[in-house]
Structures are given as structure tokens and as C-alpha cells.
Specification:
Blueprint lengths: L2 H6 L9 H7 L5 E2 L2 H10 L3 E6 L8 H15 L3 E6 L20 H16 L11 E4 L1 H4 L4 H8 L5 H6 L1 H7 L7 H4 L1 H16 L1 E7 L3 H15 L4 E5 L12 E2 L2 E2 L9 H9 L3 H11 L4 H13 L5 H14 L2 H14 L10 H9 L3 E4 L5 H7 L6 H9 L3 E3 L2 E2 L15 E6 L3 E7 L1
Parallel strand pairs: 2-3, 2-5, 3-4, 5-6, 9-13
Antiparallel strand pairs: 1-6, 7-8, 10-11, 10-12, 12-13
Helix pairs in contact: 11-12, 13-16, 13-17, 14-15, 14-16, 16-17, 19-20
Length: 431
């Protein structure tokens, strides 16, 4: 994210304080002593952190919730530590169902660099409350197993560790849980203690499903130092039907453009249900309360215009990619459906968009009827000819009237867009 985008971001001055805005945005699920935390946030700058484990080469939408929460805290004057888990990423936190596959040290080290660079785009590294990157491998790697057991392990009680939700779920499953993953909560607790001692870090943020790991740190700090620290956990974001948000056809929605294309990313937000879109605007954008309420009124009065979804898709795509990329996706969506010039779209945007559609690679001269079959828009050549005869087939937004017509030119000799009816699209890569 550019410095210009960061400079335009602000918290909403219409709220009495930051805590009130966080609650309105739906970012507070559970915390340690609420009044003490609210007072700490209002009384002066504190140092806080959130951890991101490199278990994949990119961050995803669940991580974005935390990054934007961190940014809101930073805008209020607080000091963020961005922890990428070079050591915890080698272990992996326990999933509810099965043991994680351990990645190699080389892979994890590579992913640490990728995730650190991604996370850095959402925070400012300048000024009095500049963000600071940290890596927990820095303090775990020099520690021997004996030192770890003597200095850290002695503060943990197995009974309490067994009661953590993720651990108990695994204990009651057929997979069980290894000592490796069982120890994860100790490592995360060690992180908070180290940051508390090194940087006077007094708060950790994370998802509510990580509550056991989050409070592992506050418990350890209290046992070792006798002092208190805070945890702020955000809700697990779900759709109105109860499904976990951020999954698209079984796959995570990634922040890396190579893993989730900007067009697919934009379309994901554009397709958010009416019942969910206002909540998404609160969590994932910096639009003010009055702006969100204005979109909520438009949604109630004219839901078919999808103004809230369009605002959401543009704002989040601009945050994650860029304003220019977001605008390109708006133009691509319009052009693909015949409401703009396809030739105005650059090669990268067209490639991104067409890869998300049913598509085929075909040379010039291929019959359009064959392209309809190859892309799956129709089931057979006879059905393709019938669709053309009925006037329902478009090539690059021009109606096809000849059943024997072929692909002759394309867009810059590289692309073609097929459309059947008003909404069914497919892409052709020429070559």
C-alpha cells in the first residue's frame, strides 16, 4: 500500500473513543479486562503485536482482519509490532481435525520474507509510532531444549493446556495430537513474554478461535513478572448462513495477486450477499460511519443497484492491490459484460479476468461454434449453431450472426471474449 493511501486513512471522529469504534465495526469478540484495556487504549500510546505464521506463501482474508485492526490501533497513536513466526511457522498451531504437514526450514524461511513484505504494506513504518517487524526465530533459535523446559515449560500446567479448545478437539479425534503441536501454545506464550520484556508490549490481537494461544502469553507474563497484559480477540467472521467467510469454492482468498488474481479478488467482494455486505464494509474498509450508513440506506431502498457491494469491492481491492488496480477491475467487469470497451483494458487485466472464466487456447481461424463448445458455453456444435441463430452469442461484445463465422482478429491478436446471453462469459487465449 502506498504512503499516499496510508495518509488518507483515519479513524472516525464521530465515536467517543477508539474502543467504541472497534465495537461498532464488530471487531471485539472477547478481551481480557475490558475496562482496563479501554482505559489503556485511551490514556496513551501502548505497544501491541499480532503474529502471522508462514504456513503458506501468502496472507489471506483472515489475516487482513488483523492487519486492518492493527492499522486502526496505529492511527490512534499506538505502536505495532508485526511478528512473522519463523519458529512457530516450523510447528504450526493445532487445527481442529488433523496434524499439519511440516514444511522444510528453507520453505518457511522463504515464506517469512514474503509474509513480512505483505504485512508491511498495511502499516506505516515512519513517525513516532512506526511499526516494527519482529521474528520469533530470533529468540527461540538460540535457546536450548533444556533452557526452554526449565525457564518456560515449568510455568505451564498440563491440565490447563489440555483444556484449550484446539487441543481438546484433537484429543477427542481419531488423529490425536503430537507433542510438537501440543507445545505450540507455549511457544506463542514465549513470544508475548519476549515482546513484553524487550519492547514493553502489553497487548496482543488475534482471532477468537486462537483465544487459548493468546491467553497463554498473558498467563506466562503474569507468572514470570507478576504483571498483567491484554488480549483483544476479533470474532470469527462468518456469512449469514454460518459458513466461514473468506473461502471461495473451498480455497482461501489470498492477498497475493499470483494466488488470487485482482479480478477474482474484486469479484469475490462484489458477490457478497446483501445480508453480509454492511458488516464487511465496517470490518474491511476505512469508510466512516456516515458513509456506511448511507450505503446501508441505499441497500434498503435499491438493493438491485448493489451500491454497497460495489463500494466494498473497490475499497478492499484498492487497499490490498492499489487504487489503479481496483479501477481496472471495475472497467474490466463493465467491458466484459458489454458496458465498456474491451480494447481499453491492458493485457494484465484481461489475462487476470479471462483466467477466472471458462477458457480455451485456440488459434485464429477457429470456428466460433467450436469455441462455444471448447469453453463449455454449450454442449455441442449443433447447440452452438442454434445459439448463434437465435442471436444470443457475442464475440468481443459484437453479436455473431453467421453460424459458420470464425475467430479472425481478436483483441490485440491475443484475446477474445465470448458471451452467451447477458451473463454467461468465456475467454479465448489466441495462439
Amino acid at each position: 500500500m502506498s504512503n499516499a493511501v496510508l495518509a488518507k486513512q483515519s479513524n472516525d471522529a464521530s465515536f467517543a473513543d477508539l474502543w467504541q469504534e472497534l465495537q461498532w465495526r464488530g471487531l471485539v469478540a472477547i478481551s481480557t479486562d475490558e475496562e482496563a484495556l479501554r482505559m489503556a487504549l485511551n490514556s496513551g500510546p501502548i505497544t501491541y503485536y499480532c503474529g502471522f505464521d508462514p504456513t503458506a506463501p501468502s496472507l489471506h482474508l483472515g489475516n487482513l482482519v488483523q492487519l486492518l485492526l492493527m492499522r486502526r490501533l496505529q492511527l490512534a497513536g499506538h505502536k505495532p509490532l508485526v511478528l512473522v513466526g519463523g519458529s512457530t511457522g516450523l510447528i504450526g498451531d493445532p487445527r481442529p481435525t488433523a496434524e499439519r504437514t511440516l514444511n522444510t526450514k528453507e520453505t518457511v524461511a522463504e515464506w517469512v520474507q514474503l509474509l513480512a513484505a505483505q504485512a508491511a504494506r498495511f502499516l506505516s513504518f515512519e513517525g513516532e509510532n512506526a511499526a516494527r517487524p519482529v521474528n520469533n526465530l530470533d529468540w527461540t533459535a538460540p535457546m536450548s531444549a533444556i533452557d526452554f523446559l526449565r525457564e518456560i515449560g515449568k510455568h505451564y500446567r498440563v491440565g490447563k493446556m489440555l483444556s484449550k479448545d484446539a487441543v481438546s478437539a484433537r484429543l477427542n479425534s481419531d488423529a490425536g495430537i503430537s507433542y510438537t503441536e501440543f507445545s505450540y501454545q507455549i511457544l506463542q506464550g514465549l513470544d508475548f513474554l519476549e515482546l513484553f520484556q524487550r519492547y514493553e508490549c502489553v497487548m496482543q490481537t488475534g482471532g477468537s478461535d486462537q483465544w487459548g494461544n493468546l491467553t497463554s502469553g498473558t498467563d506466562l507474563i503474569h507468572r514470570v513478572t507478576g504483571k498483567s497484559a491484554h488480549v483483544l480477540a476479533t470474532p470469527l467472521i462468518t456469512n449469514s448462513d454460518g459458513q466461514k467467510f473468506g473461502k471461495s469454492e473451498g480455497n482461501a482468498v489470498w492477498l497475493d495477486a499470483e494466488l488470487t488474481s485482482p479480478y477474482a479478488f474484486y469479484q469475490f467482494w462484489l458477490n457478497v450477499e446483501d445480508a453480509d455486505v454492511i458488516d464487511r464494509l465496517k470490518v474491511f474498509t476505512f469508510l466512516s460511519r456516515s458513509e456506511v450508513e448511507g450505503l446501508e440506506a441505499q441497500l434498503a431502498e435499491a438493493p438491485y443497484l448493489r451500491a454497497a457491494q460495489k463500494a466494498l469491492a473497490f475499497e478492499v481491492t484498492a487497499l490490498v492491490h492499489s487504487v489503479e488496480t481496483a479501477q481496472a477491475q471495475v472497467e474490466a467487469a463493465a467491458a466484459l459484460f458489454g458496458q465498456g470497451e474491451l480494447t481499453n483494458l491492458d493485457d494484465a487485466t484481461l489475462t487476470s479476468a479471462l483466467k477466472e472464466l471458462p477458457n480455451t487456447n485456440s488459434p485464429l481461424g477457429t470456428p466460433i461454434a467450436q469455441l462455444l463448445v471448447d469453453t463449455g458455453l454449450v454442449a455441442s456444435l449443433s447447440a452452438a449453431r442454434r445459439a448463434i441463430a437465435e442471436g444470443g452469442v457475442y464475440l468481443n461484445n459484437e453479436k455473431v450472426t453467421d453460424e459458420a463465422a470464425s475467430l479472425e482478429i481478436g483483441i490485440r491478436g491475443k484475446f477474445a471474449v465470448l458471451r452467451r446471453g447477458k451473463k454467461t462469459l468465456a475467454g479465448v487465449f489466441i495462439g
